[in-house]
Amino acid sequence: MIAALLRRIGISIGLAWIVVTIVFLALHMVPGDPAELLLSSGGVAPDPATVAELREKLGLDRPLAEQYVDFLAGLTRGDLGASLVDDYPVAQEIALRLPRTLELIAAGALIAIVIGIPAGTCAAVYRGGAFDRVASGLAALLLAIPVFVVGTLLILLLAQTLRLMPAGGFVPLAQNPAQHLTLLALPTIAIGKGLTAVVFRMTRSSVLDALSRDYVRTARAKGLSPARVLVHHVVRNALTPVLTVLGLQMGTMLGGTVLVEYVFNWPGLSTPLLHAVEARDYPMVVGIVLTVSGLFLLINLAMDLLYAVLDPRIRAA
Questions:
Q1: What's the half-sphere exposure (Cβ side, CA atoms, 13 Å) at 83?
Q2: d(C-alpha 166, C-alpha 38), whole Å
Q3: Out of the domains of life, which is the source (predicted)?
Q4: Cα dist from 215 to 20, 211, 306, whole Å
Q5: How many CB atoms lie within 10 A of CB 207?
Q6: Is the pLDDT of residue 316 over 60?
Q7: pLDDT at residue 312 in the model
Q8: CA Rg value for the chain
Q9: Residue 117 has pLDDT above 90, yes or no
C-alpha cells in the first residue's frame, strides 16, 4: 500500500514537472519577441527601450537554461512573480481568489454525488421503469445545454421573473453566512448540472454491470438481504469507475468555472485570468494556468487514494 502510494505521488510530481516545463517553453515558442508581444497595442510597435526594459524584468535577456532554473526555483519558493499591470504579487492574488473557485467546484461536486449516485443506482435497479426513462432523458438534456445557457436561464427565471434568488454577487462567508450561501446556490446549480448528469449515467452503467456479476448472485444465494447486497456488493464495487469520471470531470470544471463566475459575478480565478489575457499579463496567466494544472493533478491523486480505500485489490497492488 505504501509503495503504491509513493509510486502514485512520484508520478504526480513527474507530471507536474512536465506541465511546468511546457508552460515555461510556451513563452519561448511564441513567434516573435514575447516582451514585444506583451507591449504591443493596437498594432503600434512599442518603444525599443521599453521592450528592452521588460525583457530584463522578465529575465528574457538571459540564457534559456538559466531562465528555466530560476523559474523552477521561484516555484519551489511559491514565487510566481508580480503582475505586469499593477505589480501585485501573483501568488497573493491567487491565494485570495482560489478558495472561492474551489468552493464553487466543491459545491457542484457535492450536488453531483448526492443526486447522481443515488439516482443512477435507482435507475439501474429499476431498469426500464418510469424513473429510469425520465432520469435518463433529463440527464441527456442537461449534458446538451451549455453551462452559460443554464446560468442565464436561472437568472432569468429565478432572479428576474420569480425574484426568489439574487442574480449574482459575492459576500464573504464570515460576514453573512446566509447571504453567502444564497449567492452560491445559482452558480452551484449551473456548474454542477453537467457533472450530476455524468455521474448519474456512469453510476447507472456501473451498477447494471455489477448486478450481473457472479459475486452478486452468490451473495443473494447466501440469503443476504437485497439492501445489504446492493450497498455492500453492488454499489461499492460500482463506485470505482464513477470516481474516475468524477475526478476527471472535476478537473474539467476548473475550466468551466470561468463562464459561471463571469455570468454570476463570482470573484474567483476567472476575473484575473480574463483581465490578464486581455492585458497580456504573462506572469498572472502563467500563475493561474499552473495553479489549475496543479489542482487537476491533486484531484486525480486523491481519486487514486480513494480507489485503494474502496478496492482491496488496489491496496495489495
A1: 19
A2: 38
A3: Bacteria
A4: 45, 9, 22
A5: 24
A6: no
A7: 61
A8: 24
A9: yes
The mean-pLDDT minimum among 48-52, 73-77, 127-131, 157-161 falls in 48-52
The 3-state secondary structure of the chain reads CHHHHHHHHHHHHHHHHHHHHHHHHHHHHCCCCHHHHHHCECCECCCHHHHHHHHHHHCCCCCHHHHHHHHHHHHHCCCCCECCCCCCEHHHHHHHHHHHHHHHHHHHHHHHHHHHHHHHHHHHHCCCCHHHHHHHHHHHHHHHCCHHHHHHHHHHHHHHHCCCCCCCCCCCCCCCHHHHHHHHHHHHHHHHHHHHHHHHHHHHHHHHHHHCCHHHHHHHHCCCCHHHHHHHHHHHHHHHHHHHHHHHHHHHHHHHHHHHHHHHCCCCCHHHHHHHHHHCCHHHHHHHHHHHHHHHHHHHHHHHHHHHHHCHHHHHC
User: Is-contact 195 246, C-beta < 8 A?
Assistant: yes
Question: What pTM does this model have?
Answer: 0.80
Question: Could you report how far apart the first and last alpha carbons of the chain are, in Å?
Answer: 7
pLDDT band for position 1 (cuts 50, 70, 90): low
Long-range contacts of 159-162 (CB under 8 A, 24+ apart): 159/186
89 DSSP β-pair partners: 82
